[in-house]
Amino acid sequence: MPSADIEAFRKVLASSKHIIAVAGAGLSAASGIPTFRGAGGMWRKYDAMSLATPSAFKKNPSLVWQFYHYRREAALKAEPNAAHYALSRLSFPPIRQQVAPDSTFTLITQNVDNLSPRANESFFAECGEVPSTDQPHLLEMHGRLFDVKCTDKACGHTEFNTDSPICEGLRGTEQFVQRQHLDPELPADNLPKCSQCGALTRPGVVWFGEMPHHLDLISEIVDKADLCLVVGTSSTVYPAANYAYAVGMSGGTVAVFNFEDNESAQDADFAFIGPCEDLLPQVLGI
């Protein structure tokens, strides 16, 4: 059985040298971001997960863009919560030195909502400096919701875009999505276009069937890790679901922070069950 002993965990944290956190949708739940599997359920008679595929976009870009416009608008209204900021503090060497001397830290997030980068930007600005480390403090392995990618391979332009709405043709459609009502099909001319060539764009997230970002670098970091914090994820989507297992198999410690007790928590060395925004700052002690 995993332990919920905070003092015992802090002793492990203090002796750890290479710390990683693997975060999922539960990290952002307190910010009002719907969890991916709960975002609408069977929305418009479609399984929400089936919208996150290249084939779904090819078949009906209007439907997919309306879903992602809804997610963009929700993320734009959200603010980072206490769990995001706890991980930002752990990213900052002078603070991390207090709880885990001479250690490294990387947050590997499956989230695409931009809340972890916003928390880091805000916290680092408050501190007056950006931490310089031998490895990145944040890796967004599933891409970014606000990246917009041109579908014309000859162009290939990608830009970061937080416009609300991203285009006039999508204005207000988030209300239909939220009520789970059908709304009129949008012609392709009304969907977001590339600012460079005018071709149809797509959301800059990693869809099912596509390769996550930074895999080689993540693999190197996971191989070195001696402590893995699993934060707000059901650990069912690979390859991220395998990272904690890999750390445990190499002799490292796994600590789960999750709202629900699941199989990944039962296999961990430590399990802290409850809201991440409450538990993470409390248990880390920062």
Explained architecture:
The model is unreliable at 38-46 (pLDDT under 50). Helix 3 (61-77) crosses helix 7 (173-179), helix 4 packs across helix 6 (115-127) and helix 8 (215-224) runs parallel beside helix 9. This protein folds into two domains: 1-32 and 80-142 and 211-285, Rossmann fold (3-Layer(aba) Sandwich), CATH 3.40.50; 34-77 and 144-205, SIR2/SIRT2 'Small Domain' (2-Layer Sandwich). With 286 residues, it is an alpha/beta fold. It is elongated, with a radius of gyration of 20 Å. The chain contains eleven helices and eleven strands. Strands 5-4-1-9-10-11 form a six-stranded parallel β-sheet, sandwiched between helices. Strands 7-6-8 form a three-stranded antiparallel β-sheet, covered by helices on one side. It has helices at 6-15, 54-59, 61-77, 82-91, 93-99, 115-127, 173-179, 215-224, 243-249, 263-266, 276-284; strands spanning 18-23, 42-43, 46-47, 104-109, 138-140, 143-150, 158-160, 201-205, 227-231, 253-258, 270-273.
**Overall spatial form:** elongated
What percentage of amino acids are in beta strands?
15-25%
Largest sheet at a glance?
Answer: 6 strands, parallel
CATH class of the largest domain: Alpha Beta
Uncertain segments are: 38-46
Fold-level CATH name of the largest domain: Rossmann fold
Helix and strand content put the structural class at alpha/beta
Helix proportion of residues, in percent?
25-40%
Main location: mitochondrion
Enzyme class: transferase
Active site: 142 (proton acceptor)
Domain Deacetylase sirtuin-type: 1-286
